[in-house]
Fold this sequence. Notes:
The chain has 337 residues and is of the alpha/beta class. Helix content is 18%, strand content 10%. A hairpin with a 2-residue loop joins strand 3 (137-139) and strand 4 (142-144). The longest helix is centred in the N-terminal third of the chain and has 18 residues, at 2-19. The radius of gyration is 35 Å and the shape is elongated.
Amino acid sequence: MGSLAGLGIASLLLAAAWAAPGEEEMREVEKPKGDLAVYENLDLDNYDLTLDSYGEIVDLSNYEELYDYGDLAPKIEVGTLAPPTKAQEGLPNLGTTAETPKLQPPSTAAATAAGSGHSDLLEPITAGGLPSCLRCLCLGTSVYCDDAGLERVPPLPPHTAYLYARFNRIGHVRAGDFAGLKELKRIDLTSNDISQADADAFRLLPSLQELILPGNRLTALPELPRSIVRLDARLNRIPSAGIRPEAFQDLTQLQFLHLSDNELDHIPAPLPQSLRSLHLQNNNIQTMQEDTFCDSRDHSHIRRALEDIRLDGNPINLSLFPDAYFCLPRLPTGRFH
């Protein structure tokens, strides 16, 4: 019986060895065939980037939004907040007590401001005799009053350097709104209802570098201080008659002038030599003078700074005025046929 059992086990092992595939057959079965088809269909001959295909890869349709002026963005220093006032020191510490503070009725000054229709977001006077933030957010020298229902510019702390009052209902900027603010560098009034700005509303600000006014209803450009570096008055209703003659000639610090989407019928020349970027697209400009950008008497002069001119969206044919921009490092963007 023992010999018969041994013969049976040996026959089973031989049958299993005969049925198992060899190593070479296993490699052929497991070899991936799909990857070869992918690499065979991959065309690497035309991989190089050419000027013809550059426009398909790089989208320049959002040029206006992509233009970066980060070098002019205000820098907020951490740790420059003013010490708490005596009134703030007297407030209960909600983190260390379980008692619910009792609400006090508004003061007479606050009630007067609320009922005056002035929409002030700053307390008129503090114990130190200076205005302080009430509902605006004040961080160091920056004041943020965005989307706060303002109908006019609120009173500001005397050391304000940056004001952001966007998305409000301000309709008129008055001469006294920024009086005495000698350190004010940037005013951003984007998307309000401003239809009028007094002549001295901005002109007397000695440190103002950026005036941001897009998305309003201006029909005339306010006078500007000589310290201005950037003016953005896009998306308004300003005609050429709304810009006084030679308005920009003496602004020797002006680098960015953006007046696109207005009602201009000619380029507001003369322009300062400091200008780097001029955006006038989507107006009604039909012609230009030979000395708009260059000195027609000096063909050796090159105006290297002015390298960004947008005139697209105007009815002007730029190919008719080749002598107007021979001194520029780059051709203006617009229609040449």
